[in-house]
C-alpha cells in the first residue's frame, strides 16, 4: 500500500469549524472565572520579570522586597504564577496581609506554579491571561526579564498609550538593566518620530522598593484608586 493511502485523511471543514466554535466557549470560561475570582482584590499591582531568576539572587530579592512592601501597604500582588521573579513577587505578597495572585499559563517548559499563591488561576490562552494582568492593575512593576517580560512591558505601554486602559504607573526596577532600552526609546523611537516625546514619560525607573510604593501612592493621591465611570467603561472594552 502506498504511503499516501496510509496518511490520515484531513478533517472536514465543518469539523474544524465546530472545534473552533467550542474553543470560543473555553476562552469565555477563562474570562468569566478570572473576572469573578479577581473582582474584589483591588487595588492590585502587577509584577513582571524573568522566570529564570534564581532564589537568593539580586533580582529575586528585589522582587520579594517590593512585593512584601506592597502587600503591607494594602495592594494585592499579581504575577504570572511561575518561578523566578514571579515566585519572588508572590512570595513577598504571601508573607504580607494582602493577597498573592498567580495567573499561571500552560506551557511546554518553564512554567510550574509556585506555592505562594492565595489565589491561583490557570490559563490555556496567553491573550486571556494578558487581559487579566491589565484589567485589575493599578500599576505595573517590571523587573529584568526576557522576551516574555518585554512583551508584557510593551503591551502595558501600548494599552496606556492608546487609551485602551486607564493611565497608571509603569515602573522599571534596576536601572542598569534597562539603560540600553531607555536610550533606544529616546534615540530611535522618539528620534525617528515613531512615538511622541511625551510617550517616554509613561515609563519611570525606580530602584528602591519603598520608593516604588511611595510613587504609586503619590500618583493616586488626588484621584483615588477606584476607576472613574469613564475608566470603568474603558476597562469593560479592554
Could you tell me how far the N terminus lies from the C terminus, measured between alpha carbons in angstroms? 55 Å
Question: In CATH terms, what is the fold-level topology?
Answer: Rossmann fold
Strand content: 5-15%
The portion of residues assigned to helices is 40-55%
Mean pLDDT: 90
Query: Roughly how many Å is the radius of gyration?
Result: 20 Å
Number of DSSP helical runs: 9
Per CATH, which architecture?
Answer: 3-Layer(aba) Sandwich
- The structural domain count equals 1
- What structural category do the secondary elements indicate? alpha/beta
Unreliable residue stretches: none
Strand tally: 7
The major β-sheet equals: 7 strands, parallel
Question: Please, could you describe this protein's structure?
Answer:
The protein is α/β, with parallel strands linked by helices. It has a single domain, classed as Rossmann fold (3-Layer(aba) Sandwich). The chain contains nine helices and seven strands. It has a seven-stranded parallel sheet with strand order 4-3-2-1-5-6-7, sandwiched between helices. Helix 3 runs parallel beside helix 4 and helix 3 crosses helix 8.
In short:
The chain contains nine helices and seven strands; from the N terminus they run H-H-E-H-E-H-E-E-H-E-H-E-H-E-H-H. With 238 residues, it is α/β, with parallel strands linked by helices.
How are the secondary structure elements laid out?
Blueprint: H1 3-6, H2 13-38, E1 44-48, H3 58-72, E2 76-79, H4 85-94, E3 100-105, E4 119-123, H5 126-135, E5 137-142, H6 147-161, E6 170-172, H7 175-190, E7 203-205, H8 209-220, H9 229-236
Amino acid at each position: 500500500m502506498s504511503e499516501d493511502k496510509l496518511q490520515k485523511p484531513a478533517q472536514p471543514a465543518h469539523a474544524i469549524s465546530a472545534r473552533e466554535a467550542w474553543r470560543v466557549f473555553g476562552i469565555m470560561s477563562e474570562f468569566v472565572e478570572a473576572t469573578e475570582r479577581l473582582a474584589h482584590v483591588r487595588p492590585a499591582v502587577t509584577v513582571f520579570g524573568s522566570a529564570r531568576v534564581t532564589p537568593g539572587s539580586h533580582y529575586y530579592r528585589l522582587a520579594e522586597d517590593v512585593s512584601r512592601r506592597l502587600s503591607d501597604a494594602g495592594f494585592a500582588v499579581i504575577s504570572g504564577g511561575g518561578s523566578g521573579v514571579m515566585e519572588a513577587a508572590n512570595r513577598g505578597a504571601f508573607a504580607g496581609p494582602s493577597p498573592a495572585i498567580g495567573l499561571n499559563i500552560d506551557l511546554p517548559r518553564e512554567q510550574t506554579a509556585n506555592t505562594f499563591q492565595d489565589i491561583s488561576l490557570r490559563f490555556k490562552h496567553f491573550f486571556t491571561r494578558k487581559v487579566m494582568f491589565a484589567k485589575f492593575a493599578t500599576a505595573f512593576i517590571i523587573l529584568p526579564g526576557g522576551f516574555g517580560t518585554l512583551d508584557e512591558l510593551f503591551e502595558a505601554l501600548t494599552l496606556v498609550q492608546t487609551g485602551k486602559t486607564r493611565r497608571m504607573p509603569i515602573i522599571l526596577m534596576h536601572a542598569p538593566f534597562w539603560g540600553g532600552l531607555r536610550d533606544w526609546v529616546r534615540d530611535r523611537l522618539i528620534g525617528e518620530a515613531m512615538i511622541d516625546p511625551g510617550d517616554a514619560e509613561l515609563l519611570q525607573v525606580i530602584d528602591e522598593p519603598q520608593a516604588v510604593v511611595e510613587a504609586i501612592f503619590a500618583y493616586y493621591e488626588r484621584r483615588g484608586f477606584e476607576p472613574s465611570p469613564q475608566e470603568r467603561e474603558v476597562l469593560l472594552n479592554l
